[in-house]
Write a structure and sequence with these properties.
Elements lengths: L2 E10 L3 E4 H7 L4 H7 L4 E4 L6 H16 L8 E5 L10 H9 L5 E5 L5 H14 L5 E9 L9 H4 L4 E11 L4 E8 L7 E2 L7 H6 L9 E2 L1 H22 L9 E4 L4 H11 L10 H4 L6 H11 L8 E8 L3 E8 L1
Parallel strand pairs: 4-5, 4-6, 11-12
Antiparallel strand pairs: 1-7, 2-3, 6-7, 8-13, 9-10, 12-13
Helix pairs in contact: 3-4, 8-9
Length: about 325
């Protein structure tokens, strides 16, 4: 069996920062409330003329460089976003052009915040069948452009970022056990409207704007804790390992309380968890690759380490992967 392994990783965050003092100046909130209820202190915000594919291209270039590959070595680009520049072309095709990946097929997919782990699972299938050797996964979102900055329940959570990884055929073990799933009964718990002209959905939004994200925070939170814990426990168990064998967990960074409750269900403590939540907030699918990239740079991850990546998001969806670095 051919193994699929992450051979390169890269992250990008824009320079502009909205800190909690700024959030206090635009909505009825406080630094104390935001930190206690979410754990977020700052978020990065894309420039007015900086779009999803611009950030995606930067992260993609970093991942390629980190893998020591040229763009022409890539066979497939898959890109996860919920804030695409266009419905067509796909953002993946724009990135393919921007980096000059002339040999790559390209498509977008939508698993919301579960996008990175879903991408690893997609990439693993193409590699294990022998169809492709090098796949570039890119996760990018300009959530700030879809955020209603009059809605205090959502605007304090989101930020912008992009993360990318190269997954290659390898003799070494890489992406080991995985789990992904969906619960469509919760489909309307987080919504962002496309062509659907739905009065009920529009009325839910504070400013009655059609183009912003709405969510039922508490319902998502309840789902997230169970989904993250169950999926993580499953991938560890199915690998024949225990939590003692796992060096680090890199979770989706939506809310500190979600992470805290989920890790209690896994029976682990925070020293085994890598968090970027405080400085970037929830950046959708890019949370995990951005955090992973930073953890590698900071020496928190070493060759041979077993790492659990776990995410959840709109759909509702979830995904977990146990990877060997
Ligand atoms: N500042 C101050 N008060 C706020 C606030 C803010 N930024 N946002 C909401 N509140 C208020 C609410 O209006 C409510 O007031 P009320 O009691 O007078 O009606 C009160 O705080 C409690 O609201 P509630 O929604 O019960 O708070 P919560 O503890 O569930 O926290 C979220 C809200 C959104 C932070 C939390 O539900 C969450 O993080 N959910 C998961 C969201 C998520 O992960 N989404 C992305 C999925 S990938």
């Amino acid at each position: 069996m051919i193994n699929a392994k992450i051979t390169g990783i890269g992250g990008y965050v824009p320079e502009k920062i909205y800190d909690n003092a700024y959030m206090e100046s635009i909505v009825d909130t406080s630094d104390e409330w935001i930190v206690r209820r979410t754990g977020v202190k700052e978020r990065r915000i894309s420039a007015d003329d900086e779009y999803t594919t611009d950030m995606a291209t930067k992260a993609a270039k970093k991942a390629l460089e980190n893998a020591g590959l040229g763009a022409e070595d890539i066979d497939l680009i898959i890109l996860a976003t919920v804030t695409p520049d266009y419905f067509t072309p796909s953002c993946a095709c724009v990135v393919q052009r921007n980096i000059g990946a002339v040999n790559a097929a390209a498509f977008d997919y939508n698993a919301a915040c579960s996008g990175f782990v879903t991408g690893l699972i997609i990439a693993k299938q193409f590699i294990q069948t022998g169809m492709y050797k090098n796949i570039l996964i890119v996760c990018a979102d300009t959530l700030s452009k879809a955020t209603d900055y009059t809605d205090r329940a959502t605007c304090v959570l989101f930020g912008d970022a992009a993360g990318a990884a190269v997954v290659s055929a390898s003799e070494e073990e890489g992406i080991m056990t995985t789990d992904m799933g969906a619960d469509g009964t919760g489909a309307l718990s987080i919504t962002s409207l496309a062509y659907r002209n739905d009065d009920e959905e529009i009325e839910k939004r504070v400013a009655h704007r059609k183009d912003t994200i709405w969510m039922a925070g508490q319902a998502v939170m309840k789902f997230a804790v169970k989904a993250m814990a169950d999926a993580s426990n499953k991938v560890v168990r199915e690998a024949g390992l225990t939590w003692d064998d796992i060096s680090l967990v890199v979770p989706h960074q939506a809310n500190y309380r979600i992470v805290d409750s989920a890790i209690k269900r896994m029976g682990i403590t925070e020293d085994k968890v890598y968090l970027t939540l405080e400085k970037y907030g929830n950046t959708s699918a890019s949370c995990i690759p951005v955090a992973l990239s930073e953890a590698v740079e900071k020496g928190r991850i070493k060759k041979g380490d077993n790492i659990v990546l776990v995410g959840f998001g709109g759909g509702l969806t979830w995904g977990a992967a146990l990877i060997r670095w």
